[in-house]
Amino acid sequence: MQQPAPGRRAQQRQQRLAQILGAAEQIFATSGFEGASMAAIAAEAGLPKANLHYYFGTKEALYAALLEDLLRLWLSATDAIRPDSEPAAALEGYIRAKMAWSRSRPHASKLFANEVLRGAPLLAAHLSGGLRALVEEKAAVLRGWMAEGRMAVVEPRHLFFAIWAMTQTYADFDTQIRLVLDVPALGDREFDDGVATVLRLVLGGCFADSARQHG
What we know:
Layout: H1 6-35, H2 38-45, H3 49-56, H4 59-75, H5 87-104, H6 106-117, H7 124-147, H8 156-172, H9 174-181, H10 188-206, H11 208-213
């Protein structure tokens, strides 16, 4: 039997990894770490369970790989927060990116929240290491803007906490929002209203001119 070309094999590997990670994201988010099983993830992915063990070995390794992948994805949204960026535009872009992830990857946000709620046993090193370093780096950028009079003075790390809370609630507590708004699902209108409100609150508190533009 003819073997696939190296490029084809690499493509197949990436496709299987994406299938597995996508299925794992949903199963871990809905069942929790303890309730999830490799069999359930394999069934959701439409792959033999042996494939999961081949690529990740154990449920713990798959869970850790998924968390690391999600953290990399979310951290990339801060790339525009640089000293030479326009402050209001940079924070607006960050907020819009976070809201977009809450809409397109709600299970990812729930998975992350569940991990933190259980004490972050597999994420503690990342939270106190890579994430802390990134927050300090971006906080230094914001402090520079404040020193230059380009934005209001706030505690930048707590500003990030507030942005995370406001944006991720549309994924983590979507059921609460849906029931209060009396809608079957969160759609364009709900997310548009959510984005506009978060932008109004954050930009209004940090940039008066931007607040008027988003009013």
